[in-house]
Specification:
mainly alpha
Length: 84
């Protein structure tokens, strides 16, 4: 069972996804996750990353740390119990 609410960043992968407010609220764009607003922006990001192999590795590691620190189901259930 996945202990987190995120399927990809929790395993340390650099996640590139369409930009939306929920992702931006949960993770720091550019630090823990990469987002794009248009297909052209996604393509440009991928071209940049192809020449900077350390960057996606760093983003993946930062995303994993953030998800495991703040976004596990145990953390969320504790927040829910406290709110009730």
């Amino acid at each position: 069972m996945n202990p987190c609410g995120f399927e990809f960043p929790d395993v340390g992968g650099c996640h590139l996804t369409e930009h939306n407010a929920d992702v931006a609220a949960a993770l720091e764009v550019g630090i823990n996750v990469l987002t794009y607003r248009t297909p052209d922006e996604a393509a440009e990001l991928l071209r940049e990353l192809a020449h900077q192999p350390e960057r996606p590795m760093a983003i993946g590691a930062a995303g994993r740390r953030r998800v495991l620190a703040e976004h596990t189901w145990a953390t969320r259930l504790g927040q829910l119990a406290a709110a009730l």
